[in-house]
Design goal:
Length: 177
């Protein structure tokens, strides 16, 4: 009996020492994260996001979206008169919008009696929103899909929008100043 207690003590001491040892420092190969890793990661992320967006659009067949060179998808579903001016860089856009995730989770929404003011291309709003605003006229309503690189990127907004989120936005351009 004493030998088994002694062996158990050796076993527990060894287990404790093994569990408390420090991990080996990373090798130079493990520490190296270069441009090629970033490019590969971003390409893979882009492919995954495009697959999610295409699946979403296949499910919602009434969304006939156009795609810009940046990857912004947009559909103007209520068009203003053609002679109404287009929004331009530097103007203040007065908008109402609803920002959701593709699963329908609403992240942000202006209240019906409120208007959000965005200085086009000069505010902290998602870059995809700035791009979309320059496609709109006063009175236009549009639906947008922003891949994460046009929204809040790899980190999200650290409040309601998770990292690497694709955003689904319903926006109305009320006025320009």
């Amino acid at each position: 009996m004493q030998k088994s207690v002694l062996y158990m003590g050796y076993f527990l001491t060894g287990l404790f020492l093994f569990a408390c040892r420090r991990p080996a420092p990373p090798t130079a190969q493990q520490q190296k994260w270069g441009t090629s890793h970033s490019v590969d990661f971003n390409q893979e992320l882009s492919v995954r996001e495009n697959l999610k967006i295409n699946t979403f659009l296949a499910h919602y067949t009434t969304l006939r979206m156009q795609v810009s060179n940046s990857g912004l998808r947009y559909m103007i579903y209520h068009k203003a008169a053609p002679n109404t001016p287009l929004a331009k860089d530097g103007q203040q856009a007065l908008v109402q919008l609803k920002i959701s995730l593709l699963d329908g989770t609403v992240c942000y929404q202006t209240k019906p009696d409120e208007i959000e003011r965005i200085t086009i291309a000069h505010s902290e709003k998602e870059s995809g929103v700035h791009e979309a605003l320059q496609l709109l006229r006063i009175g236009d309503k549009a639906k947008l899909i922003l891949p994460s690189h046009l929204g809040h990127g790899l980190l999200g907004d650290r409040m309601k929008i998770p990292p690497q989120s694709i955003l689904y936005i319903d926006i109305q351009l009320i006025d320009l100043q």
